[in-house]
C-alpha cells in the first residue's frame, strides 16, 4: 500500500513492490498538519485517519444554494401550440380563456408602435403622392406605365471559376438573342465556360416563366412583325410574348487560393479568379415598343426639317434701298 502526501491511498497488486508516484518532491506541495490539544484535527490528517481506520468525519457539509427558477417566455394567442402549453403568471392566455371572458392586459400602444414606428413619415409620403397626382392630373409617368404593362426578370448567377476576359465574349454573344437561340449556341459552343452559361440560362428561363409569367402564349390576333433593331438589323417577331435577352453583363467575383507545387519543394500560391453572369430577360413586346418609339422620333425629326413654301401675297412696300 502506497501513501500519497495528498491523503490518497493506493493498493499495489504485487506484494513487495513499493509504488512510486509520478510526482516528485520538487513538484509536490508541502503541507503541515495542525494538531489540537486533544489530538483531534479537522484537516487532512483527520481525514486520512477516518479513511484508514473506518471512522466518521465530523466535518459539516453545506449544501449549495439552488439556481433561481428560469423565467420562460410565452406564446401568442394565435399560436398553434396553445393547447399543449400551460400558461403561467405573465404569459398570454389561450383561446379558451379569451372566449370565457377573462380580461387580457395588452398594451395596444406597443403593438401600434411596432407596426408604425414613424407616423409622420407615412403622412409625408401620403402628402407627396397626393401632390404628385394633382400636378400630373392623375397621369402616370412613362416608366411606371412600362413597369405595369411589360414583364421582366433579372437573374444573377453564382460565381464561375473563370475570368472576365473569358466570360465577357460569351455574354456579348448571347445579348439581344432569343433565349432558346442563346441556349442552343451555348450547347454547341467549344468554350469551357459555355456549359456554366448554359445552366444559368436554363435556370433564368424557368424563373421567368414561373415567377413573372413570361412566354405563356401569344396574344389573340397577333401577326408576325418585322422590326428594325437599334443596330440596324431586321428582326422578324413571331410572337410578342417570346423571351429574349435584353442585356447580359459579367461581374467580377472574389479570388480563390490554390497551391502550385514546384521543384525542390517550392510552392507557389495561385489566385484563380471567379466571375458571375447577369442576364435581363424581357418579352418581344418590349422590343416592338422600342422600335415604335424610335420610328415616331425619326418622323418628328423629319417633319421639323421639311421646307414650307411661303404664301403668294403682294409685297406692300418696295424700295430701291435697304431699310437697314
From TrEMBL:
Residues annotated as transmembrane: none
A UniProt-annotated Pfam family: Ribosomal_L22
Keywords on record: Ribonucleoprotein, Ribosomal protein
One Gene Ontology term of the molecular function aspect: structural constituent of ribosome
Compositional bias per record (Polar residues), positions renumbered to this chain: 76-97
Region (Disordered): 48-117
InterPro entries for the chain: Ribosomal_uL22 (IPR001063), Ribosomal_uL22_bac/org-type (IPR047867), Ribosomal_uL22_sf (IPR036394)
Gene Ontology process terms (BP): translation
Gene Ontology CC entries for this record: large ribosomal subunit
Record-stated family: Belongs to the universal ribosomal protein uL22 family.
Protein name (database record): Ribosomal protein L22
Organism for this UniProt entry: Penicillium antarcticum
Amino acid at each position: 500500500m502506497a501513501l500519497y502526501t495528498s491523503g490518497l491511498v493506493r493498493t499495489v497488486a504485487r506484494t513487495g513492490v513499493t509504488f512510486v508516484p509520478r510526482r516528485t518532491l520538487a513538484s509536490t506541495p508541502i503541507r503541515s498538519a495542525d494538531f489540537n490539544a486533544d489530538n483531534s484535527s479537522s484537516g487532512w490528517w483527520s481525514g486520512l485517519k477516518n479513511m484508514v481506520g473506518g471512522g466518521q468525519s465530523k466535518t459539516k457539509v453545506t449544501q449549495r444554494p439552488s439556481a433561481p427558477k428560469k423565467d420562460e417566455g410565452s406564446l401568442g394567442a394565435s399560436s398553434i401550440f396553445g393547447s399543449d402549453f400551460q400558461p403561467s403568471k405573465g404569459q398570454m392566455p389561450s383561446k379558451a380563456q379569451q372566449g370565457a371572458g377573462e380580461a387580457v392586459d395588452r398594451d395596444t400602444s406597443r403593438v401600434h408602435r411596432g407596426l408604425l414606428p414613424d407616423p409622420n413619415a407615412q403622412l409625408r409620403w401620403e402628402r407627396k403622392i397626393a401632390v404628385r397626382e394633382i400636378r400630373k392630373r392623375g397621369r402616370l409617368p412613362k416608366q411606371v406605365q412600362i413597369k405595369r404593362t411589360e414583364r421582366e426578370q433579372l437573374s444573377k448567377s453564382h460565381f464561375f471559376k473563370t475570368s472576365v476576359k473569358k466570360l465577357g465574349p460569351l455574354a456579348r454573344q448571347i445579348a439581344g438573342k432569343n433565349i432558346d437561340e442563346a441556349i442552343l449556341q451555348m450547347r454547341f459552343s467549344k468554350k469551357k465556360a459555355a456549359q456554366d452559361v448554359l445552366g444559368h440560362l436554363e435556370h433564368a428561363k424557368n424563373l421567368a416563366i414561373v415567377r413573372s409569367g413570361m412566354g405563356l402564349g401569344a396574344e389573340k390576333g397577333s401577326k408576325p412583325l418585322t422590326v428594325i433593331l437599334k443596330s440596324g438589323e431586321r428582326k422578324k417577331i413571331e410572337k410578342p410574348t417570346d423571351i429574349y435577352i435584353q442585356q447580359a453583363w459579367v461581374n467580377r467575383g472574389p479570388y480563390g487560393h490554390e497551391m502550385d507545387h514546384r521543384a525542390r519543394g517550392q510552392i507557389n500560391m495561385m489566385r484563380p479568379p471567379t466571375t458571375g453572369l447577369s442576364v435581363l430577360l424581357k418579352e418581344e413586346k418590349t422590343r416592338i415598343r422600342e422600335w415604335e418609339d424610335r420610328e415616331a422620333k425619326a418622323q418628328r425629326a423629319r417633319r421639323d426639317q421639311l421646307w414650307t413654301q411661303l404664301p403668294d401675297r403682294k409685297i406692300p412696300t418696295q424700295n430701291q434701298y435697304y431699310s437697314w
